[in-house]
Amino acid sequence: MDEQERPEIETLQPKSLGLERWVQMAFLAFGLGTLWVLDKVISLVWDRFAEPTPELVTFVSLVLAAVITVALYRNPKVSRISHEIVGELAKVSWPSRKETQVSTIVVIVTSLIAAVIVGAFDAAWSAITDLIYKV
């Protein structure tokens, strides 16, 4: 069998998740946040009736958070909206590290100047009111 007759072997290459990975990360973060909130709420409610068992509360919270997160992930409307959001965020032109540093310095300097001006007005107003009330 020469090379022309040999069937081509498909090479398995990992698929790039692209924007889907960000959607999945967002749902993972949502699930962890839901777990934390449910753990606190269930503990708070359970504490009203009896002493809660922390392990059981965490397990129940984990199951509920997993069910809620998976249900939302599989919901076509929520999935479509989350994919649209990630798609729009991918189009955003994010600033470079240097631009972020320069902008941060501008904000800090501007805040300090504003603080000095407000402090001067406060001192002047305090001095004027002290003269008026003769303190």
Structure described in brief:
This protein has helices at residues 20-49, 54-74, 76-90, 97-133.
Helix run count: 4
Tell the overall outline: flat
Number of domains: 2
Rg (C-alpha, Å): 29 Å
Strand percentage lies at under 5%
- The count of β-strands is 0
Helix content: over 70%
Structural commentary:
The chain is 76% helix and 0% strand. It folds into two domains: 17-92, no CATH class; 93-135. With 135 residues, it is mainly alpha-helical. It has helices at residues 20-49, 54-74, 76-90, 97-133. The longest helix is centred in the C-terminal third of the chain and has 37 residues, at 97-133.
Key terms:
2 domains; 135 residues; 4 helices
Topology diagram in text:
Layout lengths: L19 H30 L4 H21 L1 H15 L6 H37 L2
Helix pairs in contact: 1-2
